[in-house]
Specification:
- This protein has ten helices and eight strands.
- With about 290 residues, it is an alpha/beta fold.
- The chain has one domain: Rossmann fold (3-Layer(aba) Sandwich), CATH 3.40.50.
- The chain has an eight-stranded mixed sheet, sandwiched between helices.
- The longest helix has 18 residues.
Length: about 290
């Protein structure tokens, strides 16, 4: 694992001290609560359920937890040890129901499948984060992280890229980071249109691999080498480019002989939270 950069940490602290704070509502008590958020700022067509697990009554450590494509938000809690580990380590969890989004930032004339009125990444930025901040969560001075699996792994990386100064660390499991290397992918085609007609769009829009210059926070990357759903090379290539272009950023890489399933994802919960804990502790030492 790379050493933490004191320059980067110091930069975070300076930036956070300059950002305005949002007036919070009364804190939620410990336990699980469900909020229903609109799918658009105006002219909404449906509501999106969001579960909030409060394990830190002081609201200091929060994790935004993203599901895979068409996975229930509840599977993270039902099929992994995340809830128990979060309670033990005093983290709050925010689990939105993301449905069939691929965490796109916009729709196109060629988009055939829309998960909601607002594209996934924009919904997180425009609606979810501001609403959570009104609840006292995901405020800029708190230790906020984002994690996801499968398509949600891609979503976690995009969320960190599109919401600078909110998230201090990220963890992504079994994700895809360069759709241009998967030109026949049906989910990507349904959002961005056919690859051979819109190559530039596939290569530049919502493409984490092409956005590495903007990456500036610690990252945990995990992917099973026996994954038959999302190619392992997606994570390997992303990691290698990050390691080459961002040598001062802390990156943890995990590549066990596992598949694309909750048996694997559950095994990564403790290592991920250990990773977050280490970053939180180190940031505290720098203050």
């Amino acid at each position: 694992m790379k050493k933490f950069s004191s320059t980067i940490i110091a930069g975070y602290i300076f930036i956070l001290s300059c950002l305005p704070q949002i007036q919070a509502q009364s804190p939620l008590p410990n336990g699980i609560h469900t909020l229903y958020l609109p799918d658009a700022v105006e002219r909404q067509s449906k509501t999106i359920p969001v579960d909030i697990f409060i394990g830190d009554s002081n609201y200091q450590k929060n994790i935004l937890v993203l599901p895979g494509w068409n996975f229930s938000r509840k599977r993270w809690l039902q099929e992994t040890s995340l809830q128990q580990e979060a309670l033990k380590r005093h983290y709050n969890l925010i689990l939105p129901e993301m449905g069939i989004t691929i965490y796109e930032s916009k729709y196109y004339n060629e988009t055939k499948r829309k998960w909601a009125t607002t594209p996934g990444s924009e919904w997180i930025k425009q609606i979810l984060i501001p609403k959570m901040q009104k609840q006292g969560l995901l405020l800029s001075h708190q230790f906020n992280t984002v994690m996801g699996l499968s398509t949600g792994g891609r979503g976690a990386v995009l969320t960190a890229l599109y919401n600078k100064h909110i998230f201090k660390a990220c963890a992504s499991l079994s994700g895809d980071y360069n759709q241009a290397t998967m030109p026949n992918d049906k989910l990507m085609t349904a959002t961005y249109g056919p690859y051979f007609q819109f190559k530039d769009r596939w290569e530049k829009e919502d493409n984490p691999y092409s956005m590495i210059d903007g990456w500036d926070i610690p990252l945990y990357l995990g992917h099973g080498t026996k994954d038959t759903v999302v190619p392992f090379d997606q994570t390997k290539a992303f990691y290698e480019k990050l390691k080459s272009q961002k040598p001062d950023i802390t990156i943890k890489y995990s590549d066990p002989e596992c598949g694309h399933d909750f048996k694997y994802w559950s095994s990564e919960v403790v290592p991920i939270l250990n990773f977050f804990d280490a970053i939180y502790a180190h940031a505290g030492e720098q203050q």
